[in-house]
Write a structure and sequence with these properties.
CATH architecture of the domain at 10-87: 3-Layer(aba) Sandwich
CATH class of the domain at 10-87: Alpha Beta
Number of helices: 3
Radius of gyration: 15 Å
Largest sheet: 4 strands, parallel
CATH topology of the domain at 10-87: Rossmann fold
Length: about 110
């Protein structure tokens, strides 16, 4: 599948260090997007980024941890650049939704003006 030109776009791809996420990041970068590779393992993310040409950023994100999600969002906000789109390719690791699992915190997401 061909991806239309993405120059000037900022795209977040979860699970971008392998499989569908890595291929999605690769194709978006080739199409000109700035790709934020959101990964649980920063080391694996940097290793995967070596296989891709383009404007890439590797950032830690563990979707099973609300603290990690909050820190990831804070980093994006601090960059001061709006995200144009996101692609979710991260697989569940079994912690979320497991009996006995309790969310760390509850958040209400509010879009800033």
């Amino acid at each position: 599948m061909e991806i239309s030109a993405q120059a000037g776009k900022l795209v977040v791809v979860t699970g971008a260090n392998s499989g569908v996420g890595l291929e999605t990041a690769r194709r978006l970068a080739l199409a000109g997007a700035t790709v934020v590779m959101a990964v649980r393992s920063i080391e694996k993310g940097f290793a995967a980024a070596q296989s891709i040409s383009g404007d890439l950023r590797v950032s830690a994100l563990d979707l099973a941890s609300l603290a990690s999600v909050s820190a990831f969002a804070d980093r994006l906000i601090a960059d001061g650049r709006p995200v144009d789109t996101g692609r979710a390719a991260a697989a569940a690791d079994g912690r979320t939704g497991t009996p006995g699992h309790v969310a760390e915190q509850r958040y209400t997401l509010v879009r800033p003006d």
